[in-house]
Amino acid sequence: IAVETHQAIAPTGAPADYGVVRFQNLAIAVLPLFEDGTLMLVGQHRFPRMNYSWELPEGGSPLNDDPLDGAIRELKEETGLVAGRWIPAYQGLELSNSVSDELAYGFIALDLTQAEAEPDATEAFQLRRVHFREALRLAATNILRDAPTVALLYQAHHMAIEGELPDEITAAMLRRETP
Q1: 17-20 LR contacts (CB < 8 Å, sep 24+)
Q2: Which residue, 42, 133, 56, is CA-closest to 89?
Q3: Phi, psi of 138 (to 5 degrees)
Q4: What is the DSSP code (8-state) at residue 176?
Q5: pTM greater than the 0.90 cutoff
Q6: What is the DSSP string of 61-98?
Q7: What does the pLDDT look like over 17-60, one tens digit per residue?
Q8: Are 109 and 31 in contact (CB under 8 A)?
Q9: Phi, psi at 24, each rounded to 5°
Q10: Which of 41, 44, 146, 161 has the most neighbouring CB atoms within 10 Å?
Q11: CA-based Rg of the chain, rounded to a whole angstrom?
């Protein structure tokens, strides 16, 4: 990252100091959605908040790379999953536009097959497979707090309701689980 400060004139005409955090990477999030309506969550320690976070597979991708290439890499790196089909869900989501220029790209990964995960030397992941509706409930009750994860879950729900996902996947992800 780079941090810049700017002395500027606000839209009101008043002088203002602005700080901007510039990112070298795009934020990438992937919703790996299985045919039975389940998905894979990744658990890991997050240094900035000193907490343990459950989230969708995600990471950074260089600004000049195709965001889909980053999504393919992050999914395999964190889970070992390889997708046969990719659906863009959001592009250029502004993560913290009051202080940052960071943009996020979210993808839905379908037709999944298992391969070997390839985590970085600094990464230790736990994997948890849950039904889509359970993940949506966890987001709605503030248990899942990662912004790209929450946005991607809600976007996928919207896409399912609007008929923008394959019918068989929509039926599986929206079915009510019995306790």
Answers
A1: 19/99, 20/99, 20/100, 20/101
A2: 56
A3: -65, -35
A4: P
A5: yes
A6: EETTS-HHHHHHHHHHHHH-EEEEEEEEEEEEEESSTT
A7: 999 999 999 999 999 999 999 999 999 988 888 888 999 999 99
A8: yes
A9: -90, -10
A10: 41
A11: 18
